[in-house]
Amino acid sequence: MVLKAFFPTCCASADSGLLIGRWVPEQSSAVVLAVVHFPFIPIQVKELLAQVQQASQVGVAVLGTWCHRRQEPEESLGHFLEGLGAIFSHEPWLQLCRERDSKFWSCKATYQQVPTSPGAHSEDQVMLIFYDQRKVLLSQLHPPAALPDHQAGDATASACGLAAVFDTVSRSKALFRSDQFDEGLVRLSHWQSEGVEASILVELAKQASGPVCLLLACLLSFISAASTCRVFKLWPLSFIWSKLSTCEQLRHRLEQLTLIFSTQKAENPSQLMRKANMLVSVLLDVALGLALLSWLHRKDRIGQLADALVPVADRVAEELQHLLQWLMGAPAGLKMNRALDQVLGRFFLYHIHLWISYIHLMSPFIERILWHVGLSACLGLTVALSILSDIIALLTFHIYCFYVYGARLYCLKICGLSSLWRLFRGKKWNVLRQRVDSCSYDLDQLFIGTLLFTVLVFLLPTTALYYLVFTLLRLLVVTVQGLIHLLVDLINSLPLYALGLRLCRPYRLAAGVKFRVLEHEAGRPLRLLMQINPLPYNRVVHTYRLPSCGCHPKHSWGSLCRKLFFGELIYPWRQRGDKQD
Amino acid sequence: MEDELSFSDIYGGRLALQRRYYSPSCREFCLSCPRLSLRSLTSVTCTVWLAAYGLFTLCENSMILSAAIFITLLGLLGYLHFVKIDQETLLIIDSLGIQLTSSYASGKESTTFIEMGKVKDVIINEAIYMQKVIYYLCILLNDPADPHGISQVVPVFQDCLTAVTLPWRASLWCSSCLLLDGDHGICTD
Fold first, then answer.
1. Which of A494, A512, A533 is the last residue of a domain?
2. Is A538 a member of any domain?
3. CA dist., res. A249 & res. A255, Å (int)
4. Cα B86-B88-B92 angle, rounded to 5 deg
5. What number of C-beta contacts closer than 8 Å exist between A and B?
6. 3-state secondary structure of A39
7. Transmembrane stretches, by residue range (chain A) (predicted)?
8. What secondary structure does DSSP assign to A159-188, as a single string?
């Protein structure tokens, strides 16, 4: 198998020294982590390696020598480097050498103890793979490789393939902690040997986050304790809570905040990412809500809205009245059953009359109600949108009522017609066996049944027309509410932090690696550059999508049409299965 | 070392296959698809604009003309960025893996690297396309749960479906690279 040496790009300009890294025998690859510079005392290097090995559970060893010839080649250094192999024995012993003014390196791997294959690998049998240590250390592979337990004392990582390289680099953080300003006796060269990378702001935030989280967690626990109070669980209140999407959204927001400010530390990167996504989503939501609030309170827009709302409701009721009057005449030239038409139309007209008087009773308070609703936008845009959806539901309550009446009547007729059609054919529905059996009816039964069937058939078009018109109106309202809920869901579930990370630091979320073949000269080892292949955006969204309130369309289009045809009631998507009547 | 062969694809267009041998353990196959021809570009643009002009004479609304210009531009951008593939590359590195790269006409590159441990086999698959049988090269991936199963079939040179000779040669290369250990040299063509 070809020997592969993974070499960090940051060490390419380092002075000569020893290569420190991990040897993965099953893939015959050497992962170089750092370079130790001269002068050093061998025993101290061995001590350092033992410490790192204990801290990271990675078998770090001296892999070979690194020779960077800046001046004219010195013969003595070459012999000295070869002699080092006797002190730090490793199988195979790598000898990397970079010439002055040359892009091509030479690399030799010597096996000392195996007599059957004496000497070195030929130059062709070694492959140099350069990697960016910082990016490999910070990146997170997707899907995550199964990492062995750190506590289990598993000295060798069981991750296979390239995941082993990533795992080795990410676990040897102890090695990268020392920089050139340290007083230590061993001088190392690695990605942060110029100085440990850190930010004052991040450190301050880390210090501050503990107490802030504790305080907010206490507050949130008070709120959740208050919300579980028994007064809120009495019958009419609990029913109302379950129907309002605002309550659903508030509950969801409370759960999110509790998770964000929980004092427990995130156990794995995916949990951390989830917390960060939630925090960013909440922050964005609140920012949008505050923008809405400032827009509403500028130039007295709430007053304008309140003034516009009552005329709009009036207008809707007026249009409905016109529609009903049209239906009571001869709609589209159809001849309806006059008596039933009049009864239904008058009933609905009376309902609208009731509704209009209710709205007018409410009108003095609407501005104050809207003002308070506007304040709720500081809890987030999603809360404001949920309230808007509830307001739409309340303002179109008459349409809902009409729809229910129409649907019930229509359903009754359809059921009656289907059972009478069976009677017409001399059959009946056997409830016990759940099937249609043949049955012999009396003459009276047949006569009455047929008569009823005829009556129902002739009355069906009138009912069906009312049902059709009000179902269309209801579907319009449901569509508007569904769109609002989709928007709320989008804000709730979009992993904004992960998307931002993908946009600004593409290497943090890695789908894998890609290789580029660097310039090559015959007789020299092949040089490859390993780059991080970033995760595509659709997979970022798919992997890190936050759980939403379970508001997915429950009906397929087929089942929706079936329900509409048989006159069963349909509900907005927001309703969960257990809350349906 | 580098050589170049040319083939014709199923539509009769010319394809150029470049083979580069970097070392015995690493080789690259690079397939260049035919470029976007000026004739097809002109004909599509002219069709859209003539249709828009026809609508414009009917409706007398100049919005239609500007909309047609925008649609053409956006369509061209989308076509170059997401659909039109200029070059497909197969890089085989011994004991490391297989890398598939497709470069789009706009310069976008999409890369997939398949580790050698995940490759189960390389096969030539047969498919019926319109009225003829075409052959294409596939990589079968191991299923981690089931040692005998196949989790995925990855087609190689998917967007430049080619005549039979090309996949056959590529398959030879690919499988020889997979089968031979580092101790043996890989036989050249």
1. A494
2. no
3. 10
4. 160
5. 60
6. coil
7. 278-296, 343-361, 373-396, 445-469, 475-499
8. --THHHHHHHHHH-TTGGG--TTS--SS-E
Residues A37 and A155 in one domain: yes
- The ipTM value here is 0.80
Least confident of A189-198, B75-84, B160-169: B160-169
Residue A579's CB: how many other CB atoms inside 10 A?
A: 12
- CB-based contacts of A581: which residues, under 8 Å, 6+ apart? A569
Q: Which residues contact A107 (CB under 8 A, 6 or more apart)?
A: A5, A94, A95, A96, A97, A123, A126, A128, A525
d(CA A34, CA A375): 58
Q: Note whether A156 and A229 are same-domain residues.
A: no
Same domain, A9 and A87: yes
The tokens describing B181, both together, are: 């250990």
Nearest Cα of chain A lies from the Cα of B17 at a distance, in angstroms, of 18
Does position A422 have pLDDT exceeding 80, yes or no?
yes
The residue type of B94 is D
* Distance, CA of A420 to CA of A416 (rounded, Å): 6
Contact residues, chain A, for B101 at CB < 8 Å: 514
Contact, A37 vs A189, CB < 8 A? yes
Classify residue A553: in a domain, yes or no.
no
Dump the DSSP string for A133-162: HHHHHH-EESSPP-PPPTTTT--S----TH
**Overall domain count for chain A:** 2
Record the tokens describing residue B176, joined without a space: 């020889």
Looking at mean pLDDT, say which of A376-390, B16-30, B161-175 comes out highest: A376-390
What's the CA gap between B12 and A276, in Å, rounded?
53
Mean pLDDT to the nearest integer, B22-29: 82
Tell me if B117 and A160 make a contact (CB, 8 A cut-off): yes
B24 touches chain A (CB under 8 A): yes
Q: Which residues of A touch B112 (CB under 8 A)?
A: 512, 533
Range with the largest mean pLDDT of A257-266, A565-574, B158-167: A257-266
Residue B167 structure tokens: 């996949």
**Which residue ranges make up each domain of chain B?**
2-36+84-177, 39-76
CA–CA distance, B138 with B146 (Å, rounded to integer): 20
Q: How many other CB atoms sit within 10 Å of the CB of residue A462?
A: 22
Q: pLDDT grade, residue B188 (50/70/90)?
A: very low
Searching chain B, which residue's CA lies closest to the CA of residue A2?
B182
- pLDDT for position B174: 61
Tokens 């210090």 -> residue: A207
Residue A520 with chain B: CB contacts under 8 Å: 22-23
Cα Rg of chain A (Å, integer): 38
- Give the whole-angstrom CA distance, residue A514 versus residue A135: 13
Cα–Cα nearest to B32, from B19, B16, B21, B43: B16
